[in-house]
Amino acid sequence: MNTNTSENITKHPSPITDMVLKSHEAQRVFETFTQEKVDTIVRAIGKYVYDNADLLAQMAIEDTGIGDLQDKVLKCKSKSSVIWNNLKGKKSRGIIGEDTEKGLIFVAKPMGVIACVTPVTNPVVTAMCNVMFALKCGNSVIIAAHPKGQRCAEHLCEAFMAIVLENDGPENLIQVIKNGSVETTKELMQAVDVIVATGGGAMVKSAYSSGKPAFGVGPGNVPVIIDRNVDLQEATAKIVLGAAFDNGLICSHEQCVMIPEEQYNDAILGFINTGKVWYSADESVIDAFRKTVFHDGKLNPAVIGLPAWKVAAVAGISVPETVRLILLKAKGAGTDDILCKEKLCPVVSILPYGTFEQALEMAQANLELEGKGHSAALHSNNEDHIRAAGVYLTVSRLVVNQPSSTSAGGSFLNSLSPTTTLGCGSWGGNSISENLNYTHLMNVSQIGQVIKNKSVPITPAEIWD
To answer: Which domains does the chain have, with CATH numbers?
Structure first.
């Protein structure tokens, strides 16, 4: 019965099944490539995005209608650079390491066909990142793009495959689903070997329920604490840079600022002095933004990725077009104010706090409301406070003294793995709590040998005492 079913699938495959079969054939060829040939292809893919950042950013804006053009250009250049810089020189094919003291040899082997589900918020660099990771380990890739990112995905697939073929790689190593749907994406996820799902909660849940190994992400809602011993001008400038980047589309962008109560007014002045922030403590104005950004407790899709002045216009409020960030005084943390949820637009709430312990409690309340397991940010020069925040907050990454949105996914200035997929651990319903890296897309065989001159415990006392 199973044999007949298999034969029928082979003889009369669905379009998805056909793609997966071709992908397996390509992968079996590609896994024989040397480290040098693999790295040549992976480098060229990253370099293509870097060299064509203007074109790709414009395409993303035209297709999705959201985000900021210049920020998308910068994102293409910076992500391609930092990811390749992290990948180059790393072994990912054949024997990748040896521990002579422990008698272990480590051998990297591909996982097979990787499904790459890409979101509307990041249609270029998410595809680039996951293709680079997958190919680095000898895998093949099938991209399932959000409908509004379809043209970007098809363009990238064509450009990346041209690079593969120029380097004597196999046909169909990288493919993209055309005229896709939720149903075809689900079919793909059930047919491949591994899934990397970057997108909405429903799609990520579907990936985890597909029966295949999956790496997904949870929602972000980054609380950011400004400690008492920092330069306010520097801290506020970094927060504005992070929260306004790409019109607030990045899942790790700052959502709610906690500031010492006695420094509240100075902090507001610091934000305004950047020349990019519009602030209000007027409850009627703030309520207009609440009703605009959220409908019946849910994020309003119509404001996602819009520039600040357009979000304000939807709320019936006029702000200068030079404004990059709207800052609103919240009523309280967590469930006290819906503005403490993830907003995915350049609107940020702000709250005063008393003790640093109260700031941590407020930040955690926001995470309990939404974004548990994702990220938090802290501006502090107090090592005890930095460690206390890292211990207390249920996040997978705490970004210190950096713009969160451009640093939580790895940067040249920290050692977080450069990526576009940020795991949220069990808190966010994810299989990993670190940044997705190429190492997650390889199998590693361990060769265990007898350890020479190893002293073996003989008596129970040697073991238990």
So the answer is: 14-217+434-447 (3.40.605.10), 222-405 (3.40.309.10)
